[in-house]
Amino acid sequence: MEINLSNRIMFFCFLLIATMATRGVGLRFDNKSGEFKIVQVADMHYADGQSTRCLNVPLDQQATCSDLNTTDFLYRVIRAENPELVVFTGDNIYGKDTTDPVKSMNMAFDPVVALKLPWAAVLGNHDQESSLSREDVMRHITAMPYTLSRLNPDDGSEIDSYGNYNIEISGPEGSPLVNKSVLNLYFLDSGDYSTVQSINGYSWIKLSQQKVYKSAPHEQKENAPGLVYFHIPVPEYASFDSNSTKFIGVKHEPISNASINSGFFTTMVEAGDVKAVFTGHDHLNDFCGELTGIQLCYAGGFGYHAYGKAGWPRRARVVSAFLEKTADGQWGGVKSIKSWKRLDDQYLFHNRFSSPLELVVKFTITGTSTSIELKRHAAIYTRRIEFVTISDRQ
Ligand SMILES: *[C@@H]1O[C@H](CO)[C@@H](O)[C@H](O)[C@H]1NC(C)=O
Ligand SMILES: *[C@@H]1O[C@H](CO)[C@@H](O)[C@H](O)[C@H]1NC(C)=O
Ligand SMILES: *[C@@H]1O[C@H](CO)[C@@H](O)[C@H](O)[C@H]1NC(C)=O
Ligand SMILES: *[C@@H]1O[C@H](CO)[C@@H](O)[C@H](O)[C@H]1NC(C)=O
Ligand SMILES: *[C@@H]1O[C@H](CO)[C@@H](O)[C@H](O)[C@H]1NC(C)=O
């Protein structure tokens, strides 16, 4: 293929951005299990903590429910899944009800910090609605302990919005792919509201941001699948608004995407490496649906101060990538990627500290074998539901 000069210059610009945007964070697949697991937390809507009441919980729960239930849920879901990374996809705090945004963020992210877990965050449309701007909110996040979040590529390039970066997950210690990214994660800021007078509604992913996605180093990217995280669904999610398009999971509300299409989905389809996109924003949707080879997934609402549906548990989405074993017994590239959900229901641990052994006898599991996996994990039966195979090379 002929590459003309301007393309080549662009390519090197991208390469430069990529080098700046990629931090050697040392995240890698587990050497024993060949697995890398990510818990996605969407829409915590954290405000002031104990004094912030829960929305849409059963009547008899209202008196005892606050932001602290969100904190507790986060601890318990982490304990159940034991992920390598936690990703927060925006509306982490609910600015309008937050009297001190710094305190609010510190409380919201406290579980991952306390557990010393690597974590990454992007912004939603509500994070900046108190006294801090989007830039200041993102700056605070990037300065917090154990986070891999970054503001933007710091090469001086003009870029819209705050929190556009990528993270590479390398092969396991002791494997031939120890120095190569075998899974690429991309984080983008889908903005808040349109500032263009003739266009109503939510903002969109600008062309300048799409470069961050396009710019991951070629040699790193080769053969490595990508997963993309941001807050507001791209308009292609709206193809699931008619019930004719199949998806796995729940759609309890309309898709609130931006009213115009900035082409990011097409960019991803063309590049061909992205296997799945994970958003939040619509708390009552938690499905994954496939469109031209890309799974478009929602996490469903996590936070108790976020709107929800009484009796419909708050939830999180989990995704795991599994490596293949090569003929010589070494770990190779990613073989399959799967996703499932975790609900804050009777099947999740009730106490983040309680002894696993006590819990075994308390759980009775019901359901069909197609939608529920019973997993004996550290002597605890836990429930994961609605499995989606995102990618599989068997
Ligand atoms: C919130 O937490 C309190 C204290 O642990 C608990 O009693 C209550 O049931 C929780 N509410 C919900 C809706 O999870
Ligand atoms: C795991 O790491 C150890 C030590 O680095 C190495 O000896 C071993 O071969 C690795 N296991 C696999 C399956 O790659
Ligand atoms: C990975 O990089 C380290 C440090 O540069 C080097 O010593 C090692 O040989 C490399 N391993 C492989 C398998 O490429
Ligand atoms: C899709 O199905 C849901 C639930 O069955 C229903 O409430 C909704 O009106 C349907 N939407 C369309 C566009 O048919
Ligand atoms: C979402 O995108 C679809 C397809 O482009 C469009 O028809 C719809 O109006 C958009 N939704 C909103 C809320 O703007």
UniProtKB/TrEMBL annotation:
CDD domains attached to this UniProt entry: MPP_Dcr2
One annotated GO molecular function: metal ion binding
Signal peptide: 1-26
Domain Calcineurin-like phosphoesterase per the UniProt entry, residue ranges: 36-283
Major localization listed first in the record, in broad terms: secreted
Cofactor field: Zn(2+)
InterPro entries assigned: Calcineurin-like_PHP, Metallo-depent_PP-like, PAP14/16/28/29
Residues annotated as transmembrane: none
GO CC field: cytoplasm; extracellular region
SUPFAM superfamilies listed in its UniProt record: Metallo-dependent phosphatases
Top-level division of the source organism's lineage: Eukaryota
Compartments where located: Secreted
Alphabetized UniProt keyword annotations: Glycoprotein, Iron, Metal-binding, Secreted, Signal, Zinc
Gene3D superfamilies per the UniProt record, alphabetical: 3.60.21.10
Family statement: Belongs to the metallophosphoesterase superfamily. Purple acid phosphatase family.
Subunit composition and interactions: Homodimer.
Protein name: Purple acid phosphatase 29
Organism whose genome encodes this protein: Rhynchospora pubera
